[in-house]
Write the structure tokens for this entry.
Amino acid sequence: MLGRNIAAFPSVRNRPRDWAPQELAEFYRVEAALIQGGMRVVTDRGLTDEGDPWFVFCREDDSEPVAHFARIGGQYLIASPAYDGVARGHDFRSMVQNLLSRHRLTPRGEGDSSNVLMHPAALLIIVVGTAFFKTPGQAKADESHKDGAHKTDAGAGGASTPGFAWTIGDLEALKNNNLSQSSQNWNEEQLAIASAVVFAAGAYEAASTPVVTTPTPTQSLFETSDSGLGSGHASFVQSVLSELEASVASADFTPIKAAGSSTGWLYADVASALDLVAKLNHIPSAHQPSAFDAAELSASSSLSASSSSNSSDYALLATKAFVGGPSTGVSASLAAFIDLLQNIDHAGALSPQQTSANVVYHEDATVVDFLPASLTGLPSYVSVQSQPTGSAGMFLAENNIFITLQFNAAAQTAADAQSTLNNSISAATVQVASVVDHPTATHPASGASSQTANGVGAQNLVISTGGGASSNEVLTASEFIQTLDLFLSETPNASIVVSQQKYVFISPQGTNSSSSVMESVTMTFNDGSSISIVGQQQALHDLVTHVQ
Amino acid sequence: MYGNPQKRTNSDVLEMRRVAGRWLRELREQAGLSQRELAGLVGTEYYTFVSQLENGRGRIPPDRLHVWAKALHVAPREFVRTLMRYYDPVTFEILFGDE
């Protein structure tokens, strides 16, 4: 089974060999931010004789590399003289985070908050920026020579900078205008990096809305950092400040950054589904080059004409973009996707107690969208019960998935929402819900239990394998999770729908084709909550059999 | 880490590195080695480093010069001397300028 070809779910192994535009955009964004931060960095890239891409950040003055990135056989690699060893992995974001963690960038001591929201690209800036200052270079040697009062720890001799380590607390403070105190003892290098990071954060948050939860950051930091970094840096600081202040003062949701600029986190305070739709319309479109595939927003555009209903509690899609596609190669596993969703939660977004929900957009993860109407044609749903107790929400929480949405208007059922809004609101949402509305047995049976087309009252996992016929294939809970994991790793642009504690992972393959036979696998919990995987019938069957 | 400022313009440094890279590529191809094979012989942790070098970015670490020369079937002295011309032209000029 392991060698089985899952044709409908393109493998990450089929990704293009050269860097994808999104990947290059990330690198060049880092380069631009570092240059803006006063660092003389140049970049270069190439392909090996086997076609594997590499990208290198070098000092401009002596062309010495400070950080080398590569993708070898689909596996990412990060190497730098500043860091011990070589980092390898399939999840680029996790690699960056792990690299930072290994270099004392994790929380330390009381008062450090783990609830830090830094765009992954900003973290990448820290990685490269730190490497820049921890590796020797001609400029640094010159600087040290010219200004003995500014001793650096990373001169031409190559010693690293002892004691310089970002903490999560620093990053949090950086975003909350409190960095001045902790930065008082920093040297100019550290402040330069801080400025670069602030710039990056500012670039991303400039596209945020007025309800962004972070105050205008670090006036005091800029004032402090300006002292040792020259007039050019002062003008840079002022420009960043102006931009950030403008973003906070802005009263509408139009991205502050012009078309083609960097995009990142977008927070929107959502009072209703229509409010959400309205805000989504301000996310840069496909005609505005950015680091994400805005085509995935198309469905939201179709809803912009929705009428004046202002309440709902229904499906939300978070699209796991680019998985297996020509992109940054972030989430390649369920664990990685969970990590991605953790970041969503870290945006301070979603908790059941909130009366309004923040919707978080991120280039890698969470394009908010609605279930495609074409899914209403799904021929059959079968249901799975394999979790004896608890709820889907509990299960996801235990796996650090927090994506519950709670709009503040009076709760409506999915059916109500459907009748209120236009027909773009997916009936499939209702259909999915109907599958799992009924709590199922409290313990999985050892054998299979065939299902009706709607799968109500399922006892065990049953996969319908063509023409509505059931092959009575049974999955354990563990196998279900493995299936979900495999599904996420093999499915580009998988989407997740959240509807009344029903979590539906959807493959885009076939959803727009009436001829495609779609099917779902659902793990149902006692309280009626559920987790479903929806995909083309044969592909789903292959996934299931793959893990069995 | 080895630091070796040459007081040359950035473009000069880059161009000399590129020339060195082309020379390394020629040697590798003459030796019938792929970049991955060469990386294995010289013990680099990632073979993309070879490609990076051949594109003029970075240098062979001094402590690896001997093993590189051996892998490329070049006498170590000649190998280092040629590389010095590109990597360390100031020193090269002092040592061999009158030759």
Chain A has 17 helices and 14 strands. The longest strand of chain A covers residues 65-72.
